[in-house]
Amino acid sequence: MSPWLVVGLGNPGPEYAGNRHNVGQMVLDVLARRMNGSFTAHKARARVLDGRLGVMPGGAPGPRVILARPGSYMNVSGGPVGALVKFYDVEPDHLLVVHDELDLPAESLRLKQGGGEGGHNGLKSISSALGTKDYVRLRVGIGRPPGRMDPADYVLRDFPASERADLGVTLEEAADAVEEVVTLGLDKAQQRLHTGSRS
């Protein structure tokens, strides 16, 4: 069975680590802690963690999941992601990309499979490299920039102190959503996330 490849989008280097644009990688850091592992270098210009995530219904260990942080800049994420998909023989419906979303209010989360990229250059690069848009996305809302601020400037700014407490909660909820996708399937995970019906 195809493993899950969970990719957190962002830009490399400590100067970008706290940016809104790097929220996908922040979610992967939460998942790495849950998997009790650490990222190691991969020849596909990425850092990866290969292990099991979550618990299946009935209590069995969760499926094999590869967490991946591309080593490229956001707008050329497709190269590393395409190489990882080939290396691990991952089907598109087992690729889950976690990314920031300007068109969702801050702290909101949405799951979807396929569809457009909404102007997100990281997603455009991945779709181009794979030749398909039919992969799963977890969209992490960061809201629109205030006033006339350029969206490109906004996404490359750190989350302000006033948002960081709520950000921690959002990252945990995003990690929960990833776990539910890989253990319950996309349909159930969407229902639980979008209706707030977790129990």
UniProtKB/TrEMBL annotation:
| Subcellular location per the Swiss-Prot or TrEMBL entry | Cytoplasm
Gene Ontology molecular function, alphabetical? peptidyl-tRNA hydrolase activity; tRNA binding
Q: Where is this site: Discriminates between blocked and unblocked aminoacyl-tRNA?
A: 11
Top enzyme class, one word, equals hydrolase
| GO CC terms in record | cytoplasm
The active site is formed by: 21 (proton acceptor)
Extract the InterPro entries matched here: Pept_tRNA_hydro (IPR001328), Pept_tRNA_hydro_CS (IPR018171), Pept_tRNA_hydro_sf (IPR036416)
Question: Can the keyword Cytoplasm be found in this entry's annotation?
Answer: yes
Q: What does this protein do?
A: Hydrolyzes ribosome-free peptidyl-tRNAs (with 1 or more amino acids incorporated), which drop off the ribosome during protein synthesis, or as a result of ribosome stalling. Catalyzes the release of premature peptidyl moieties from peptidyl-tRNA molecules trapped in stalled 50S ribosomal subunits, and thus maintains levels of free tRNAs and 50S ribosomes.
Task: Cite the record's note on assembly.
Answer: Monomer.
Q: Which PANTHER family match?
A: PEPTIDYL-TRNA HYDROLASE
Q: What is this protein called?
A: Peptidyl-tRNA hydrolase
- Organism (species): Georgenia ruanii
